[in-house]
Structure formats: structure tokens, C-alpha cells
Design goal:
85 residues; mainly alpha; 3 helices
Length: 85
């Protein structure tokens, strides 16, 4: 059996649209769908301009409960790394 690998992004819940396959009407095909866990979490990458205007830069600036945002971010990263382990 010939194998063809296609990578698609699901555009509508529960639907995958595939065209251009080298198949003839009536020919038997077997499909296996592998869902990437990271595909669900994937977000488009932001450009530098989009990042600056996104509100992420300076997000913790006015927080009174965080004295050192760099130290706080480092602490959060360390906690996350310990959880995965």
C-alpha cells in the first residue's frame, strides 16, 4: 500500500478537507488520522510590532505584589520545569 503524508490544519471542528489524492473512484483507501497535541495549543507567532502593541510588554509593571518581575518570571519557570519532571 502506498503511503502519503499530509499535514493539515483543521479549519472547522470535526472536518478535514483533502483533495488532489492519486486515487480513482471506487478505489479502497485507508486513512489514519494522528492528532498532534501541540496543534491544539499552537498560536500564530507575533511580529515584534504586534508584540509591542499586544499589551504583553509591561504587563506586570503596575503590580504591587511583584517587586522584581524578572525574579518572579524566573521563579514561575522553575516551578513549571519541576512540574513536568
Amino acid at each position: 500500500m502506498e503511503a502519503i503524508r499530509l499535514n493539515k490544519v483543521v479549519e472547522r471542528d470535526g472536518e478535514i478537507f483533502v483533495t488532489g489524492l492519486p486515487c480513482k473512484k471506487g478505489q479502497y483507501v485507508e486513512m489514519i488520522v494522528l492528532i498532534e497535541p501541540s496543534a491544539v495549543l499552537r498560536h500564530p507567532h507575533l511580529t515584534a510590532r504586534q508584540m509591542i502593541h499586544s499589551g504583553l510588554i509591561g504587563l506586570w509593571r503596575d503590580r504591587e505584589d511583584i517587586e522584581d518581575s524578572a525574579a518572579y518570571a524566573r521563579q514561575l519557570r522553575e516551578q513549571a520545569q519541576r512540574r513536568r519532571g
